[in-house]
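Incident log, entry 3
Record: N-acetylmuramoyl-L-alanine amidase (275 residues)
Problem: checksum mismatch between cached and fresh output.
Input:
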Amino acid sequence: MKRVLSTLLLALLLAGCAEKGIIDKGAYELDTRHQAQAAYPRIKVLVIHYTADDFDSSLATLTDKNVSSHYLIPANPPQPSGKPRIWQLVPEKELAWHAGISFWRGTNRINDTSIGIELENRGWQKSNGEKTFTPFEPAQIAALIPLAKDIIARYNIKPENVVAHSDIAPQRKDDPGPLFPWQMLAQQGIGAWPDPARVTFYLNGKSKYEPVDTAALLDLLMRYGYEVPDNSTAAQQKRVIMVFQMHYRPELWNGIADAETLAIARALLEKYGQG
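Fresh output:
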């Protein structure tokens, strides 16, 4: 007994003598006392998706070899313990293949700097030439809110960097679409939203749907963070305006440059700055 106590006392004494910031790794030591200033967190962006499929098919796709996402939330999460269950498919510290070819606020390869959350949702159906989107279940959004808040807090993600998949890939993607409750989430501290009073100020008495110069609007969207290449076609420019409207003016997302869309872009730039 005395020998055990002596050994424990010696270990405590040695631990007390160990240099602060020196970590014993067994075969080597790490000196962590001099941390570089030119270091930045890898995760800066939170990307919201829909799966465009049912849960079982979505889970199979996201655990296959080609694509992946950090989280998958069922449309109606089961609650075996009284709390909604969310599937984590990739550890946050690891890169998932959810964004694809993408760009946001001056940076491409958004997979490298983001966490992806997939929501089970059928996406859109086309009828009479028009897209009709599937609403999100309240239970799913209720599960998303605490998860998104935790991620944002862990990595200090800025509101303007909580984005739709369509924001970062406007030529390819529509998700999560115009029925996703961005405004409500922004009120919960998740994502960006313009101040209504500033939108009214920039609207300056004009009719909401009064046409405006497309180039002027695209310049604002590019400054806010969207990719608008110089050689964009008219159809590609319309796509950028459309996905912006899906996010910030979901009641009308026709891709046409109008006074309200311009006012929203100005209010966002004023509030969150340029990308």
